[in-house]
Write a structure and sequence with these properties.
Layout lengths: L5 E8 L9 E8 L4 E5 L6 H9 L6 E6 L2 E5 L2 E2 L7 E4 L11 H6 L8 H11 L15 H13 L5 E5 L7 H18 L2 E6 L2 H7 L2 E6 L2 E6 L1 H6 L4 H6 L4 E8 L2 E4 L2 E4 L11 E6 L4 E5 L6 E7 L3 E7 L5 E7 L10 E5 L5 E4 L2
Parallel strand pairs: 3-9, 3-10, 7-8, 8-9
Antiparallel strand pairs: 1-2, 1-4, 4-5, 5-6, 10-11, 12-13, 12-15, 13-14, 15-21, 16-20, 17-18, 18-19
Helix pairs in contact: 3-4, 4-5
């Protein structure tokens, strides 16, 4: 089995003794050619972890290896310029007084190969013919591709991208998700993408590392992460699931939305009180005049409806249904769960 391109072992970075570590004992590896997304809310440590890999920050503990070379830890330290890593910043960091080709060539060794490297990078990001334009003459999406071309041109072992699509409008961002993945795969480079957008991470990455409060909660493929969240946080942040309190009563779980046979739950244990994870798309709504669960809001999202439901206790439950399920606000409904793979988590 080939060695991973990137290997982090128990990496910790703490900025002040009075605060918890920004990154705490994170261990992960990245196979060559894979795209990894660091996903989590603001302040979870994902950008700090990216800066540790790049060499902009130095960890107090742990080791970092890139391309089988120790770059940090155990007495080793290599500055950013010696790590063979490319960087795409959130604001692109293009030089306004340089043309597209000059921006891409910046940092390359001046040699007979430079012009070809620039030409190849332009072709890779579909900007051939724009080499003499200046950044202010480009759209936001084009500027992002110039920044990516500049990172790819030196053919680094690893490319790091810090929220590269966050400054773009929604339509451009959706289009560039596919382009970004296609460009990186065509270049044959490994990459790490920092994002707080779950859909962005799910659509671009081969693997996703979910972070919370400096800790690595789970690292898996997008499919497995969505289907088998390892913690309550992953279930809520990535899957955006409903967590419904349940009490064991004989052979069923008793909940506000009805009774659920215990045989339907995967991951069962002996606890009498748990929270059941129910994904929004797994809920089937049926109008029942005697039900105490009411629709409080309905949002049309094009391909589906998003319903916000209120239970008798005031709990909010979200359901997503096909557009052939049209129910008015304030309609009392009964909920059914269309799955036999429910997960449960201990009550907090």
């Amino acid at each position: 089995m080939p060695s991973p391109l990137l290997c982090l072992h128990q990496v910790t970075r703490q900025f002040s003794r009075r605060t918890q570590p920004a990154v705490c004992e994170v261990s992960l590896s990245l196979p060559a050619g894979d795209l990894l997304a660091l996903l989590g809310p603001s302040g979870c440590g994902k950008t700090t972890l990216l800066r540790l890999i790049a060499g902009f920050e130095q960890p107090q503990n742990g080791t970092i290896d890139i391309a089988q070379r120790r770059v940090s830890g155990n007495g080793h330290w290599l500055p950013p310029e010696q790590r063979n890593v490319g960087m795409v910043f959130q604001d692109y960091a293009l030089f306004p007084h340089l043309t597209v080709s000059q921006n891409i060539a910046f940092g390359l060794d001046r040699s007979s190969k430079t012009a070809k490297q620039v030409k190849d990078a332009l072709a890779l990001v579909n900007l051939t013919g724009m080499e003499n334009r200046y950044p202010h003459q480009l759209s936001g999406g084009q500027q992002q591709r110039v920044a990516l071309a500049r990172a790819i041109a030196p053919r680094p072992a690893l490319i790091l991208l810090d929220e590269p699509l966050s400054n773009l409008d929604a339509q451009v961002r959706l289009r560039l998700r596919h382009e970004l993945r296609a460009i990186l795969k065509a270049a044959g480079v490994s990459a790490i993408l920092v994002t707080h957008d779950r859909e962005e991470a799910l659509s671009i990455a081969d693997r996703i590392a979910v972070m919370c409060n400096g800790y690595l909660e789970q690292i898996d493929t997008p499919e497995y992460l969505y289907q088998q969240p390892a913690s309550r946080f992953v279930a809520e942040f990535v899957t955006q699931a409903n967590l419904i309190p349940a009490q064991r009563q004989g052979d069923v779980w008793q909940t506000e939305i009805g009774t659920i046979p215990i045989t339907l739950t995967g991951n069962c244990d002996r606890r009498d009180a748990v929270d059941l994870m129910v994904r929004q798309e797994e809920i089937v709504l049926t109008p029942v005049p005697t039900s105490q669960i009411l629709i409080r809001d309905r949002q049309f999202l094009g391909r589906e409806y998003r319903y916000v439901l209120h239970t008798p206790s005031g709990r909010e439950i979200v359901a997503r249904t096909p557009t052939n399920t049209y129910l008015a606000v304030n309609t009392p409904v009964q909920l059914e769960i269309a799955t036999q793979k429910l997960q449960l988590y201990p009550k907090t």
